[in-house]
Write a structure and sequence with these properties.
single chain, 188 residues, 80% helix
């Protein structure tokens, strides 16, 4: 019997199958038709503190099944106001990133720099290894709440602490700007 180390393709395959299965289940059950900004924000306002916990869980599961993270940012801003909602979305995003990170790492493992064949992948992984916090922060500024970014970073050798700090540093200025813009939009 072969061990997992002799089949490096097995863990990434399991990750892909898990994601595809989750997306198919969401689509087949019609759950994606019921998760929209207005439905989510109305539910959150009506539920109070329980709504906040549900929001954090939905955000985490949503990123794992590849729902757009900006949907949850918009729902938080609409439900709780621009700045409180932005604050909730920021911390909710960090919780969701953590859930996605550990899910992807548990299923997919870590990529080894010496096993990669593509030069662009080696450069990207090298940047994560040499300057993890800065690289993660830059990726967050560019991709915000993007689930694929989180999965790619989880499969890299970045340490969780560097991932979380970089995510927080990159996401914070973007959330502040988006919250300010949301406040202006909500006022008009």
């Amino acid at each position: 019997m072969k061990t997992a180390s002799k089949r490096p393709w097995l863990r990434p395959l399991i990750l892909v199958v898990s994601i595809v299965t989750a997306v198919v289940v969401v689509k087949m059950t019609g759950l994606d038709q019921h998760i929209d900004r207005d439905t989510l924000s109305t539910f959150l306002r009506e539920q109070g503190a329980v709504g906040l916990v549900v929001f954090l869980l939905a955000f985490s599961v949503g990123l794992i099944v590849q729902l757009p993270g900006l949907l949850f940012f918009a729902a938080a801003v609409l439900a709780y106001g621009a700045y409180t909602g932005g604050f909730i979305a920021f911390f909710g995003g960090l919780i969701a990133f953590t859930a996605s990170f550990f899910f992807a790492r548990a299923v997919g493992g870590k990529a080894a720099l010496d096993q990669l064949k593509h030069p662009w992948a080696k450069r990207a992984l090298s940047a994560v290894e040499s300057r993890p916090v800065r690289t993660v922060a830059l990726l967050r500024v560019l991709t915000l709440f993007s689930p694929p970014t989180t999965y790619a970073l989880a499969l890299s050798s970045v340490r969780y602490r560097d991932f979380l700090v970089g995510s927080a540093l990159g996401l914070l200025p973007v959330v502040v700007v988006f919250s300010a813009l949301s406040e202006c939009a909500l006022m008009s």
